[in-house]
Write a structure and sequence with these properties.
Length: 190
């Protein structure tokens, strides 16, 4: 009897530690790339985390907020994952303040990544530029829904693919804070 109780307690403790570790992953972010390019512009990229999963799919999409100096609006959302992303996919964020942000991709890539020893799987990424108002709305509101508007054929008919979102606004706020810390450190050094 005592052994069963001890084993049960051990599983409970291990379960709590795993849950805490998973929360730490979701709510921890850092800058993993901070360089000046050949034109003298600063590029700051933050960690990505798998927070979006298209409904009906098991392939999550990671999202991050990045800073590219030299553009009128230097903040970009980066989506990265196995779900197909193209230049025709418009991203729509529904916010708690009642607004819906429509973001248009300014670039997308198809890369290949190895899975196991033999099979290669496609990996997509896409960048969406945020203007000042969109960035402010994103950071000051809660994201209550996310969908991707997909163009079909040559007609401009838009179909919506919904995502199960998980803490997107919290993650992007952490990304933004990490970028601001880097930018503030640079200003202090000058």
């Amino acid at each position: 009897m005592k052994v069963r109780i001890l084993v049960s307690l051990l599983f409970i403790i291990l379960g709590l530690q795993v849950a805490q570790a998973q929360m730490a992953i979701v709510y921890k972010t850092k800058v993993w790339y901070d360089k000046v390019d050949e034109h003298g512009y600063r590029l700051i990229e933050t960690d990505i985390t798998p927070v979006l999963t298209p409904k009906g799919s098991v392939c999550p999409i990671s999202i991050s907020l990045n800073y590219y100096q030299g553009y009128k609006y230097p903040y970009f959302l980066r989506l990265y994952g196995r779900h197909e992303l193209t230049n025709d996919d418009r991203l729509a964020f529904s916010l708690s303040n009642g607004k819906e942000l429509h973001l248009y991709p300014c670039g997308s890539n198809l890369q290949y990544s190895r899975l196991g020893l033999i099979k290669k799987v496609p990996i997509y990424d896409a960048y969406y530029q945020l203007d000042d108002e969109q960035l402010n709305d994103m950071l000051s509101s809660t994201v209550v829904g996310i969908s991707m508007k997909i163009k079909t054929g040559s007609k401009y008919e838009w179909l919506s693919k919904d995502f199960k979102e998980k803490n997107v606004d919290k993650w992007l706020k952490l990304n933004y804070e990490a970028i601001q810390k880097r930018l503030n450190k640079s200003e202090k050094r000058k």
